[in-house]
TrEMBL record:
Keywords: Membrane, Transmembrane, Transmembrane helix. This is Amino acid transporter transmembrane domain-containing protein. It is found in: Membrane. It is a multi-pass membrane protein. GO terms for cellular component: membrane. One of its GO terms (molecular function) is L-amino acid transmembrane transporter activity. The lineage of its organism: Eukaryota, Fungi, Dikarya, Ascomycota, Pezizomycotina. Belongs to the amino acid/polyamine transporter 2 family. It holds the Pfam family Aa_trans. Its main location: membrane. The chain crosses the membrane at residues 55-74, 132-153, 159-179, 191-213, 233-262, 274-296, 316-335, 356-380, 386-408, 429-451. Residues 52-447 form the Amino acid transporter transmembrane domain. It comes from the Eukaryota.
Length: 472
C-alpha cells in the first residue's frame, strides 16, 4: 500500500484540527502525545513551515500591532477627559486589555484548532456567532489599516507641504501597504516590525522633546495671551467623553490580532511571556508620552500627535515615522488577510503548499482588503473619528464582551464554588455588560461626532484632496 504524501498529511491534520471537531478541547489535548498535534500549521516534511516565530519576535509583532495607532491618538483624547481621568483611562484600559489577551491566549491553547477569535466564538456560541465575530475581526483591522492609510497620507502631505491631492498620497500608501502585507509569513516581516516600532518610537520621542522646549504650543497663537486648555479633570459631554474613552480603549484593544501569530510561534505556550513584555512597555510608553504631550500642548495637540511640535519637527517626525506607519497598516492587512486565507483554504492541501491556488488566494486577500482600507480612509478622513468608530463597533465586542464570555465558558463551575469564585464569575458578567454599554454608547457618540464634524466643516467630502496635515 502506498504511503500518503506530505500534502495529504497536511490536509488530514488540518481536518483534525478543525474547531468544529475539537469542541471537547481539553480532552483532546490530553489524548494527544504531541503538544503541536492540533496546531493549524503543522511541521510536516515537504510542506511550508509557518512555525518559525520566537516569543521575543512575537512580542515585537504585538508591539507594532498596537503601538503606532494608539500613541498617536491618545493625547487629543486627554484634552477631552482631563489629565487625571485620561491617565486613569490609559492605565485602566491597557491593564484590562492585557488581561483580555491572556484570557484569549489561554482559551486558544486549551481548545485545539482555534486559529482565530472567530474559532473561539464557534466554540462558545456556535456557527452563527463564528460568522459574526469573523466579520467583526476583518472589519476591525481593515478600519485600522484605513487609519494607517490616513497616517501615511498625512505624513506625505507634511513632508511635501501638500504637493498633490491627498487621495493620490492615500493611493500610493495603499499600494506600498498591499505589497508589504503580501509577504506570506510573520517571521519574514519580523524585521519590518523592529524597524517600524523603532521609527515610530523615535519620532514620538522627538515630538515629546520638541513640545517641551517651546514657549507655547506650535498651533496656539504665537503672540498675546492664549488658553492652553490643560485641565486636571475635564468636563466633557457624554458624547465627547465616551468617544475619548473609546479611543483610548482602542489604543491597546487589538489583542485579537495576537491570536494568528500564536499559530506561527515555535512554542505557542510562550505566548503569555510575549504579551506581558509587549503590554508592559505599551502601558509605560502610552502614559509617559500622552501625559507630557497634553501637559505642554493642551487643546493645541495635533491628531495624529506627530504634528504637535511645529512645522520643522513635524517634517522630521513624519519622515522618521513613515516606515512605521506603513508597517502598522501592513500588519493590520496581513492579520485580516491571513484570517481569510486560512478560512478559505483550511482542510485543503493548498494551505501549506506552494500551489497556484495557494498564492492566488493569498494575494487576492491582501490586495482586496488593502483596496477596502483605501476606500474607508477616503470616506472618513479624520484619524481620531475613524479609530473611535472601530473601537466602539468592533473592538468593544471583540476585546471586552468576548474574552469575558470565553472565561465564563471555561469557568462556569465557579458559579457554585467558593465566594472568591462566585465573585470572579459575576464580575465577568459585569464585564459583558460594560462591553454592551461601550458598544452602544460609543457607537452613538462617534456617529454624533462625525455628523457634527461634517456639519462644522472639519471633514471635507469623501475622496477630498484637502491637506490633512495642516501644512497649508
Amino acid at each position: 500500500m502506498s504511503q500518503p504524501s506530505s500534502k495529504e498529511k497536511v490536509a488530514e491534520i488540518n481536518t483534525t484540527a478543525s474547531p468544529d471537531v475539537a469542541l471537547g478541547s481539553i480532552q483532546l489535548e490530553k489524548k494527544g502525545s504531541d503538544e503541536d498535534e492540533f496546531e493549524i500549521f503543522q511541521r510536516v516534511e515537504g510542506a511550508v513551515d509557518f512555525r518559525t516565530v520566537s516569543w521575543v519576535r512575537a512580542s515585537v509583532i504585538f508591539l507594532k500591532l498596537i503601538f503606532a495607532v494608539g500613541v498617536l491618538s491618545i493625547p487629543s483624547s486627554m484634552y477631552t477627559l482631563g489629565a487625571l481621568p485620561g491617565a486613569i483611562n490609559v492605565v485602566g484600559w491597557t491593564l484590562f486589555n492585557t488581561y483580555g489577551a491572556i484570557v484569549q491566549g489561554n482559551f486558544r491553547n486549551s481548545h485545539p484548532g482555534c486559529y482565530s477569535i472567530a474559532d473561539m466564538a464557534n466554540v462558545v456560541g456556535g456557527p452563527v456567532m463564528k460568522e459574526i465575530v469573523g466579520f467583526l475581526f476583518i472589519m476591525s483591522y481593515i478600519i485600522c489599516a484605513a487609519a494607517g492609510v490616513i497616517g501615511v497620507s498625512t505624513a506625505l502631505n507634511a513632508l511635501s507641504v501638500h504637493a498633490v491631492c491627498t487621495v493620490w498620497f492615500s493611493l500610493v500608501g495603499t499600494v506600498v501597504i498591499a505589497i508589504a502585507a503580501s509577504v506570506r509569513k510573520f517571521a519574514h516581516i519580523g524585521w519590518l516590525t523592529w524597524v517600524g516600532f523603532l521609527t515610530v518610537f523615535v519620532a514620538v520621542f522627538i515630538v515629546v522633546i520638541g513640545v517641551t522646549v517651546r514657549d507655547r504650543p506650535a498651533a496656539a497663537p504665537q503672540t498675546g495671551n492664549f488658553d492652553l486648555g490643560y485641565h486636571v479633570i475635564g468636563s466633557p459631554t457624554f458624547v465627547a467623553g465616551i468617544t475619548a474613552s473609546i479611543t483610548i480603549f482602542l489604543s491597546s484593544a487589538g489583542t485579537s490580532a495576537f491570536l494568528p501569530v500564536i499559530s506561527e510561534m515555535r512554542r505557542p505556550k510562550d505566548y503569555n511571556k510575549a504579551v506581558y513584555l509587549c503590554m508592559g512597555f505599551v502601558t509605560a510608553s502610552y502614559l509617559a508620552f500622552s501625559v507630557v504631550l497634553y501637559r505642554y500642548c493642551g487643546q493645541w495637540v495635533a491628531s495624529p500627535s506627530l504634528g504637535s511640535a511645529g512645522p520643522t519637527i513635524k517634517k522630521v517626525a513624519y519622515g522618521i515615522a513613515l516606515i512605521g506607519l506603513i508597517v502598522s497598516a501592513c500588519l493590520y492587512v496581513h492579520v485580516s488577510a491571513k484570517y481569510l486565507f486560512v478560512r478559505i483554504l483550511r482542510n485543503s492541501k493548498h494551505l501549506q503548499s506552494n500551489t497556484v491556488v495557494h498564492w492566488g488566494t493569498w494575494l487576492a486577500c491582501t490586495i482586496g482588503l488593502s483596496a477596502l482600507s483605501f476606500i474607508l480612509a477616503s470616506a472618513i478622513p479624520i484619524f481620531n473619528y475613524l479609530l473611535a468608530l472601530v473601537g466602539s463597533v468592533c473592538f468593544a465586542p471583540l476585546a471586552i464582551i468576548l474574552p469575558a464570555w470565553l472565561w465564563i465558558y471555561d469557568h462556569g463551575h465557579y458559579r457554585s464554588g467558593s465566594i472568591a469564585g462566585k465573585l470572579a464569575y459575576w464580575l465577568h458578567w459585569l464585564v459583558i455588560i460594560l462591553g454592551v454599554f461601550m458598544t452602544i454608547g460609543g457607537t452613538y457618540g462617534v456617529i454624533v461626532q462625525i455628523i457634527n464634524a461634517y456639519h462644522d466643516g472639519q471633514i471635507d467630502s469623501a475622496f477630498s484632496c484637502a491637506d490633512n496635515s495642516g501644512s497649508t
